[in-house]
Amino acid sequence: MKKEIILTGDRPTGKLHIGHYVGSLKNRVQMQSDDRNQLFVMIADQQALTDHAKESKKIRESLFEVALDYLAVGIDPDQTTIFVQSQIPELAELTMYYMNLVSIARLQRNPTVKVEIEQKDYGEGVPAGFFLYPISQASDITAFKATKVPVGNDQKPMIEQTREIVRSFHHTYHTDILVEPEGVYPENEAEGRLPGLDGNAKMSKSLGNGIFLADDTDTLQKKVMSMYTDPSHVRVEDPGQIEGNMVFYYLDIFGRKEDHKQIQEMKEHYMRGGLGDVKTKRYLLEILERELAPIREKRAIYAQDLGELEQILKKGSECAQSVASKTLSEVKMAMGINYFE
Ligand code: TRP
After folding, report:
1. Residue nearest ligand 1's atom 3 by CA
2. Confidence (pTM)
């Protein structure tokens, strides 16, 4: 018997980068290896469409890239259900019923959506679908009766809203068929948000400051060599700063236990002066390559057979649909709208 049902998801708006890797992908592979857990990983293409309606082609491309990234890091379709949101119409149907339980004022209060609306400069033109996506996300989560939802801190309001919807549904229809999910949040700052190569607080595709899982060795090398270090560390002999220095930041994250001693020595040497950036970058390159080369190789193998990739997603989506469909039946029964049964 499975103890936890875990659901996570990503919007397919581009390839995944090493920030996703340390922030969530690694953790998923870990959770997958515990057979008390049942894992669902959803590619949230419908949610991506809520603010990229015109870019459906790009979303389609990203969907396959993201799926390749999943397989490459070791999310195993035999153990984990990988599925595509838009292929499960039950999720949209659930959203219809949940919409009646949420006020417009409540949606307007969602802090993450509020910030996103400001950032996107919609003015009066906020797409209704975008405004409603927290409700659709509640459908994603509850359709699978997920008990745990590992997400970034920015997703806390979505989990909160999902829990409210579950309570409201139970109260309104005098039932207890749904499950109130618990959010699982990053334990530390670095895991939650890996800074970009340029030292910007966030690694992101749009800022052009990321290392992608699909990057080849040359690209990786160029990116590492261009990393932000300590601008006042001009000559090799100058004492350098560790704090804010992205090379050391990444070394701390990607270095394994057996590397800690050397990293510590390098830090001391750097602070004393006499250790150049090229040397520290070469070392980081080695460490990153050790982690990323196997991922890249696996990705290339899967990328050779897109037919198989499609089959994996199709099969996962069929499996997800059968689960969602069961929950939807229960929902309709609780509401008394299962007229012809
Ligand atoms: N909103 C999530 C994000 O932007 C993606 C997502 C959609 C999701 N549906 C979900 C995450 C359900 C967890 C559960 O990262």
Report:
1. 10
2. 0.95
